[in-house]
Amino acid sequence: MALTEKSCVDFAEVLASKAPVPGGGGGSAMVGALGAALGSMVCNLTVGKKTYAAVEDEVKGVLAELDAIRGKMLQLVEEDAIVFEPLAKAYGIKAVTPEEKAEKDRVMEAALKKACSVPAEIVKQSMAALKLLDVLSVKGSKLAISDVAVGALFCKSALLGGRFNVIINTSLMKDREYAAAVDAEIDSLTAEGAALADAITDVVEQRIKKA
Fold first, then answer.
1. Which CATH number belongs to the domain containing residue 27 in this structure?
2. 160 near 27, Cβ under 8 Å?
């Protein structure tokens, strides 16, 4: 059974176990999916209301994008488990001779780069979701505005979680130039996304207090 087809209880149970997957990457993607879902909920509670008729078309567009991000995040839960398998196998390769060590290094490097790809995408999808939640922080229904803040906090967690799953892999790479480039891109996105999440929660708090 796919990880995303498990019940909430079963997913949490396997996450808590010593099974290699899901781990922090899959968990981050799931949290990101929930963050996007909360944004979609706010959209659905905004569309069709006379008070927000002027922004309805824009909110419908945000809804479509958040729904797509939620689907992508759920896909990344599965992909994170898939890319971890070759890395786990690479760790187990026995290498004694120089030739064997060189081959293990080659296999490890390829596996590490592949393992980085999914959490890097989690960071990017989290950033995309946060930009949409930013719109909702101003234009979403006041009745559900607190859920925009919670969604932003979830996406911030997914963003930071994705980053840690990137840097744990880049730290082990032999190709330091490649690793540095990946780290620089992810660090930049993470800093921007974390700041945006904080700004969203500030806006939401101000709207709540003015309600």
1. 1.20.120.680
2. no
